[in-house]
Design a protein that fits this description.
The chain has four helices and no strands. By secondary structure, the protein is mainly alpha-helical. This is ATP synthase subunit 4.
């Protein structure tokens, strides 16, 4: 199914997983851990029983599951991140377009003051003309009643 892994590559990857920066510190950590485990077992501080085998099996199973699921979850996370970024970029573009269109609408209204002043002058003239027309109409009615 899978390609065989070179033993040197496998050994290097195992050594790289140990904590520490140099080969000496990694070797020291590995040797100390092994010595502590041997000491605990030989002095019966820790007794290997069926629960130990169950724990080792559980940890191995979880590691296997993690190794199998990690690529699928990584792909899911990348796809989800790309989807959310796409939504955010679309929303940003929509907002930018809305702001630009609003700026264009407002720029069309930049002459609104002069237009309003002109309309006010026209309305004053209209009011004056209507007042004059009303006065003339009243004069005509008075003249027609007098006759």
């Amino acid at each position: 199914m899978s390609t065989p892994v070179d033993p040197k590559t496998k050994a290097t990857s195992l050594i790289d997983t140990l904590p520490g920066n140099s080969a000496l510190s990694k070797t020291g950590i590995l040797a100390t851990s092994t010595a502590a485990a041997i000491y605990a077992i030989s002095n019966e501080l820790y007794v290997v029983n069926d629960e130990t085998l169950l724990l080792a099996t559980f940890i191995g199973f979880m590691a296997l599951i993690g190794k199998a699921i990690a690529p699928a979850y990584g792909e899911f996370a990348r796809n989800r991140t790309a989807h959310v970024l796409g939504l955010l970029n679309e929303a940003r573009e929509g907002h930018v377009n809305a702001v630009k269109s609003r700026i264009e609408q407002v720029s069309n209204l930049k002459d609104v003051v002069s237009t309003t002043k002109a309309l006010f002058e026209i309305s004053k003239e209209t009011a004056a003309v209507e007042a004059e027309a009303f006065e003339l109409k009243q004069n005509v009615q008075v003249a027609s009643e007098a006759n």
